[in-house]
Structures are given as structure tokens and as C-alpha cells.
Amino acid sequence: MFLTYILPLIVSIAAVSIIHPLLVKIALQKHIVDEPNARKLQERPVPTMGGIAVFFGIAVGMACLCFTGICSSLFVVIISMLVMLYLGTIDDMLDISPTVRFIIQIFTVLLLVYAGGYCLDDLHGLWGFDGISWYVAVPLTVVSAVGIINAMNMIDGVDGLSSGLCMMYCLIFGTVFHMVGYAGMAAMAITAFGALLPFFMHNAFGRESKMYIGNGGTMLMGILLYVFVASMVRSDDFDTLFDARGYSVVPFTMAVLAIPVFDTLRVMFSRMFQGHSPFKPDRTHLHHMFIWLGFSHVGTTLWIIGLNLTVIGAWLLSCHLGAGVDAQFYTVIITSVIVTAGLYTVVKTIDHYYPEQMQRFIAWKSRAKPKREGIFLHLQRFMDRL
């Protein structure tokens, strides 16, 4: 247990804690920063090299396991994460076109499929299907994986949100992998959690030490989350654990990643309905709505994590009520739509018909928002000193 989980966790936390201030200094000196504009929420330039810190922590933490032999099969995963890190970091600096990003993302997913076997080739009884042919599985895998990567990329708009969600996802997937005996994947999830933890603290509470995870960080975490999903879906080992409890694998993985995936789908369809490109930046994500309502960045992060847990809770409730795999699947979809599109529509509808009441609520919420004083100011100063 210590060598497999605790040691990589400690090493990843220490590695990111050491390299983080160095990367902040380099980013500021070389002006590798995210500039404020009308769409973005920050008021000053913020370094965007957080993904490098997170990858460094994961790589160093997993290196501790090399002598155990359990990480040898994860080499292709590390390579795919490295490709996504390079792609996203270059995109942060040069603003790569969506077409080029998609091509490289698809190539990376195909690398995982053909070199690592990470293919969504089993629906575990959904709609009566179990194993499916690769002629169907490979396109399904590419669409799903690229969707997860870009959903994690597009959800990143509030301090602590993407890293906070990914920490939760890593804990959930890591626990399930450990229960099934997938030590390598469990160690990877726990190590990623450790690498994200110090970054999250600086990102959410620091000022001088604040750094964004950037496209490099969100893309590498997106590809890692896809690997977690594929590892569960492609194997029958999880059926024994899940079937004994009335759970189904596919609805479970959808419930875990519900908010990034369904909020991204909502935003993209909304843009296309208005005649815009689905990739045209705007301020219509859930996190933009919470900020507009007067919530703080940390408060917004906690609310969105709570919404994601609501979807997982609805899935669990359907399982305990005896729902089959199809019913569980539809429960996840319906709940996800309600907490993303439904919530957003309700808030905008209230604002349309009752603008004065909405403005009073926003004014009250803004006044009640925690200020950077007391314990929060001490925490900021502590993080900036590290």
C-alpha cells in the first residue's frame, strides 16, 4: 500500500510544490500569460504553465513505481499525456486552429487504441449490446475521447474548477480501480490527485503564486480521464464488482463526467442554434452563470462539484431502486440535462421576466460573497510564500 499509493502521492505533491513557484517566475519573465479581455474573468495577466507542473508531478510520482513493474503498461498513457501537454501549451502561446487541435487529438486517441488497447468496445448490456465490433468501437472511441478532452478544456474558466473536478474524478476512479485490483490505474489516479492538490491551492487561493492550468493541463487531464473510462469499459473485471451491487459501468462513467460533458454539449448546441461556430468563445457556461449571479470563484467551483455529485447521487438512487442498465443510462442523461440546460434556462428565464428581483439577488449575493480577509487572507499569504 505504501509503495503503491502513499509514496507516489507524497512525491507528486512535493514535486509540484517545488516546481510551481519556478514556473510562475519563468512564465512572468517570458510573458507566457493569459491576458484579460471582455470574455475572461481575471483582471490581470496570469501565468498559464500549470499543466507543466501537474504533468511533472504525475511523471515523478509514477517514476517511483518503476521498480515494482506495475507501471510498465502505462508507458503509452504517459506518452499520450505528453502529446496533449505539448499541444495545449503551444496552443496557449500561439493559438492553434481547432482543425489542427482535432487532428492531433484524434491521432493521440488512435495511438491509445492501437498501441494500448484503450478502446470502448463493450457496452456492458446497454440496449442489449455487450461486445461491439471495432468498425463501430473505434469511431465511438474517437468521438468519446475527443469529446472528453475538449469538455475538460472548455469547463476551465474559474479558479479551481477544472482542477477541483479532476481531483474528485481521480478519487472516484482511483477507489474503483483499487477495489477491482487495478493497482497501476489506481496509482495513476492517486498520483494525479496529488499533483493537482498543490496546484489547486495556488490557483484557488494564491494571488502572486496564482497560475492557470492552461490548455496543456486540461487536455492532459482530459486524455487521462478518457483512459480511466476506457480501462473500465473495455474490461469485464468491473462487472463482478458492479453487478453485485446492481450498478452498470457505462452509466457510472457518464455520471462521473456529467457536468463537463453535458455543459459543453449545451453550450455548443446553443452556439450552433444561434448560427455561430460551436467553438466561438462566449460566456454561457455554467461557471459564467454562477459568477454573474455573484458567487465567488471558489463558491462557483463548490456549486458545480455539488451539481456533479447530484448526478452521481441520482444514478446511485436509480441503482438502489432496481433500475436496469438502460434506465440507469437515461437517469444520468435526464439528471445531467436538468442540472445543466435546465438550471441555466431557469436562471435566464427568471432574469428575463423578473429583472429587478434578479438584480437585487445579485447585489445581495455579491455583498455576501466571502472577502479576501481573515482566514482567506492568511491562506493567500501562505500560498504566496510557498
Describe the structure.
- With 386 residues, the chain is mainly α.
- It has one domain (2-385).
- It contains 16 helices and two strands.
- It has helices spanning 2-30, 50-63, 75-94, 98-116, 134-154, 161-180, 183-205, 214-233, 237-243, 249-256, 258-273, 286-292, 297-320, 325-353, 355-368, 375-385, and strands spanning 33-34, 46-47.
- The chain has a two-stranded antiparallel ribbon.
- Helix 3 runs antiparallel to helix 4.
- The radius of gyration is 21 Å and the shape is globular.
- The mean pLDDT is 92.
Biggest β-sheet: strands ordered side by side in the sheet = 1-2
Task: Give the low-confidence spans.
Answer: none
Class derived from helix and strand content: mainly alpha
Radius of gyration, whole Å: 21 Å
The succession of helices and strands, N to C, reads HEEHHHHHHHHHHHHHHH
Q: What's the structural domain tally?
A: 1
Q: Helical amount among residues, as a percent range?
A: over 70%
The main sheet comes to: 2 strands, antiparallel
How much of the residues is beta strand, in percent?
under 5%
Task: Tally the helices.
Answer: 16
| Overall mean confidence score, pLDDT | 92
Q: What's the arrangement of secondary structure elements?
A:
Blueprint: H1 2-30, E1 33-34, E2 46-47, H2 50-63, H3 75-94, H4 98-116, H5 134-154, H6 161-180, H7 183-205, H8 214-233, H9 237-243, H10 249-256, H11 258-273, H12 286-292, H13 297-320, H14 325-353, H15 355-368, H16 375-385
Antiparallel strand pairs: 1-2
Helix pairs in contact: 1-2, 1-7, 2-3, 2-7, 2-8, 3-4, 3-8, 4-5, 5-8, 5-11, 6-7, 6-8, 6-13, 10-13, 10-14, 11-14, 12-13, 13-14, 14-15
